[in-house]
Write a structure and sequence with these properties.
The complex is a heterodimer of chains A (about 130) and B (about 190). Chain A is mostly helical and about 130 residues long. Helices cover about 55% and strands about 0% of the residues of chain A. The longest helix of chain A is centred in the first third of the chain and has 27 residues. The radius of gyration of chain A is 27 Å and the shape is elongated. Classes of the chains: A mainly alpha (about 130), B mainly alpha (about 190). At the A-B interface, helix 1, helix 2 and helix 3 of A face helix 1, helix 3, helix 4 and helix 6 of B.
Chain lengths: ~130, ~190
């Protein structure tokens, strides 16, 4: 590894510091998983994962010295994930499936609980051959 | 070239993002059985593998740095170390799969845990770690080709190829960094 004597060692300094930070974050996330913190366990774990990913993205993948087009391309993937998760969860969090209730849609819990024929009637001028005789 | 590789990386994020969404949705729908199923994963294997992959990212980044400075021997050593660490990951994964199969944790009729939804977590486990291992194997293959070409002299030491390969390698590492809390750190406390 001594391509040019002593000078190769200085190349290791900054990446090794990043590596050390990554190892410390790893220890933090595994260690904190064993402490009962309720919902904060998940928050800590995923924040640490995001921090590790950010360190790798910025320092190892050179986003700190890339031009704007590259940084945009990196953000595109993340934005797509944000859309995917937010739109999909906006669907699932507003339903009541298998007893997994959600405080975001208390009305959703009442789906299927009313007597047949007691639901509000549609107000559109439905074609009589398609309406169900109510 | 770099922009092209980043476009590819964004598409890979798309791919794994779908898997991660499925995990998140199923975990939301049935959190208790998910935690029960997730307790059967082995943290020691998972954490060790994470450390191995993060170190391989370090050696890969150092290979790129060395190639930029024109240090041919250092580049070769760092690329070889990256491959060795990648193979170490796969070996540890092999032992972990063996242990999981010994416990019978393959979704199917003989599944040892009781609410059937625990099989969902384990199906996700096998699919995501399997696909990740395939990606890692492809990465090791690419690194080996590039190392051989550098050794033979058909690739100059200051080529930008190493940067592209490194981006892919860091992506595989980043995916694993997210798989760690999803698979190994659920329900531990």
């Amino acid at each position: 590894m001594n391509g040019a004597g002593r000078s190769t060692l200085r190349l290791w300094r900054k990446p090794s510091l990043i590596w050390l930070a990554l190892m410390l974050l790893l220890g933090l996330t595994v260690g904190s998983a064993y402490i009962p913190l309720g919902v904060f366990n998940g928050i800590i774990n995923y924040s640490v994962a995001a921090a590790k990913a950010a360190l790798v993205l910025i320092f190892f993948m050179h986003l700190d010295r890339s031009r704007a087009a590259i940084r945009l391309a990196a953000c595109v993937g993340v934005f797509w994930l944000l859309f995917l998760f937010s739109l999909s969860f906006s669907d699932y969090l507003t339903r009541d499936w298998n007893g997994s209730s959600t405080t975001l849609a208390p009305q959703a819990k009442q789906v299927g609980t009313r007597e047949r024929g007691t639901y509000p009637k549609a107000r559109l001028p439905l074609n009589s051959q398609f309406s169900d005789g109510d | 070239m770099t922009l092209g590789v980043w476009a590819f990386i964004a598409s890979e994020v798309l791919f794994f993002g779908g898997l991660f969404l499925a995990y998140a949705l199923y975990r939301h729908l049935d959190p208790d059985t998910f935690k029960q199923a997730a307790r059967e994963t082995e943290v020691v294997y998972g954490a060790t593998n994470t450390a191995v992959l993060l170190t391989s990212s370090l050696t890969m980044a150092m290979a790129v740095k060395a190639s930029e400075e024109g240090f041919r021997r250092m580049t070769l050593w760092c690329l070889t170390a990256t491959m060795a660490l990648g193979l170490t990951f796969l070996v540890i994964k092999g032992f972990e799969y063996h242990s999981d199969l010994d416990k019978g944790l393959w979704p199917g009729p003989d599944f040892p845990l009781h609410p059937a939804t625990t099989q969902l977590f384990w199906a996700f486990y096998w699919i995501s770690t399997g696909v990740h291992a395939v990606h890692l194997t492809i990465g090791i293959g690419i690194v080996s080709v590039v190392t051989l070409r550098l050794k033979r002299g058909t690739l100059p030491v200051q080529a930008t190829t190493f940067d592209g390969v490194a981006l892919y390698w860091h992506l595989v590492d980043t995916i694993w960094v997210f798989l760690l809390p999803m698979l190994y750190l659920v329900g531990r406390s």
